[in-house]
Write a structure and sequence with these properties.
With 208 residues, the chain is an alpha/beta fold. It has one domain: Vaccinia Virus protein VP39 (Rossmann fold), CATH 3.40.50. Helices cover 26% and strands 37% of the residues. The protein contains six helices and eleven strands. Strand 8, helix 5 and strand 9 form a beta-alpha-beta unit. Helix 5 packs parallel to helix 6. The protein is globular. The relative contact order is 0.14.
């Protein structure tokens, strides 16, 4: 359906496969939405499982680090009626694709910040911004040191009673992320999405 290139992300494709529309970047599926409006198949995936690990307060605020096609933004609306969704995405081309092909233009109220995640996270913390739910899905395949540094930069953005969820590869740095965040949260849980999947979710609650 769509094939384009970005200096930041490389090759970007939007592909309709069976009942799903998928965002594929450099050969990896970053997002999917159902073409028929039936989200049940996606409830096996980490986008949904991450949300099930959190108890949402009424009208929460949310920060998503790494937008993709915005699958989790859509799913969050099934859990709660967010007061505001904030997104950090380094590539404006991805934002345009999410709006044009994945319905993100209808997912308001939403603010999008384009730039490097760690820099923007630090700026938000200095502004005193806090969020009830923070999801980090931008450093899944990054080198360990900058990936762990990003999660630590996000910790101060979690509101009291809020949660930070991090998506990592099960052979990657999930344990290192949990260890790095342990001084900043009272409770940290790790969940393998399913045996045949590669995703491990690190859920941090009760900021200390």
């Amino acid at each position: 359906m769509l094939a384009t290139a970005s200096a930041c992300s490389g090759r970007i494709r939007v592909v309709d496969y069976r009942r799903e529309r998928r965002l594929i970047v450099r050969g990896a599926i970053l997002s999917a939405i159902p073409l028929d409006g039936d989200w049940r198949a996606l409830r096996r995936e980490y986008w949904w499982r991450a949300l099930t690990m959190v108890r949402f307060r009424p009208r929460p605020t949310a920060l998503f680090v790494g937008l993709g096609g915005g699958t989790q933004v859509h799913l969050l609306r099934q859990f709660a009626r967010p007061r505001l969704v904030t997104v950090i995405e380094r590539d404006p081309a991805i934002v345009r694709v999410a709006i044009d092909w994945f319905g993100l233009g209808d997912a308001e109220p939403m603010e999008v910040l384009c730039g490097e995640a760690a820099t923007l996270a630090t700026a938000l913390a200095r502004m005193g911004r806090r969020f009830d739910f923070v999801m980090e899905d931008a450093a899944y395949a990054e080198d360990r040191e900058p990936a762990v540094a990003l999660t630590r930069a996000l910790a101060p953005l979690v509101a009291p009673g809020g949660a930070l969820v991090v998506n990592r590869h099960h052979r990657g740095d999930a344990l290192a992320v949990a260890a790095a965040l342990r001084p900043q949260f009272t409770t940290i849980r790790l969940r393998r999405v399913r045996r045949e999947a590669e995703n491990v979710l690190v859920c941090c609650t009760a900021p200390s």
